[in-house]
Amino acid sequence: MARAAHFTPALFDFLRELRANNNREWFQANKTRYEQVARDPMLRFIADFSVPLREISPHILADPRPVGGSLFRIHRDTRFSKDKQPYKTMLAAQFRHASGRDVHAPGFYLHLEPDNVFYGGGLYHPDAATLAKVRAAIVKKPQQWKKATSPDAFEDEATVWGEQLKRAPQGFDPAHPLIEDLKRKDYVWIAQLDEASACEPEFIDRFASACRAAAPLVRFLTKALGQPF
To answer: What value does the CA radius of gyration of the chain take, rounded to a whole number of Å?
Structure first.
């Protein structure tokens, strides 16, 4: 029997409508729909992804709990934002290292949003101390870093992505051959897809294959922080 897809076009229909009706009244009226086409399918995806993820790294976790696990909560934190819309208009999950407490830990990421579907991984917006450790590891092991980030290391046309400093970070030689990498403030790889791809039964296999291909980069970053991979 053919395997069913985790996600369907109904997910993206829901998110588009939420974008147009981002208020508590509309969401409460459509909460069951959210659970059926968004939350529960993602929780199943997370649980199913735990199997190939264990083969990639036993220290990166797929936690299918509705609250406090890999699933990003749908509610926005509006306390310090001028944008007071209460809900996120995307569905996302992070598979982070067991040593990490939040999105800034090394790991893998899945993002489903109308007209913006992608997955990736690495280190997103790490703090200064973490950045210093990664940069030191790049200087110490340049060949290993270059191998982990070469175009041949990825699938699905994935690329290394993120913000960069305009100048060399303090304490690093501006003439270093890897200075562009040392200037990075994010150490992330991403692969952009489309909604139709996310709705295919093989999407989870495609995601697992991409994470497997990018594992050397995530391993490098994790080891740079003194953690097991």
So the answer is: 19
Q: Is residue 3 part of a domain?
A: no
Q: How many CA atoms within 13 Å lie on the side-chain side of 94?
A: 20
Phi/psi at 181 (5° precision)? -75, -35
Which is it for strands 159-161 and 91-96: parallel, antiparallel or unpaired? unpaired
Could you give the count of Cα atoms lying within 13 Å of 111 in the half-sphere of its Cβ?
19
Summarize the confidence of residues 82-92 as an average pLDDT: 91
**How many domains does one find in the chain?**
1
Could you tell me the end-to-end alpha-carbon distance of the chain, in angstroms, rounded to an integer? 36
Domain interval for residue 52: 9-224
Q: Work out the angle at residue 163's Cα, subtended by the Cα atoms of residues 87 and 121, and round it to the nearest 5 degrees.
A: 65
User: What are the DSSP E strand ranges found in 60-184?
Assistant: 91-96, 107-112, 117-123, 159-161
So what's the pLDDT on residue 155?
65
Does the model's pTM come out above 0.85? Answer: yes
CA distance 186 to 118: 17
Helix (H) or strand (E) holding 217: helix 203-224
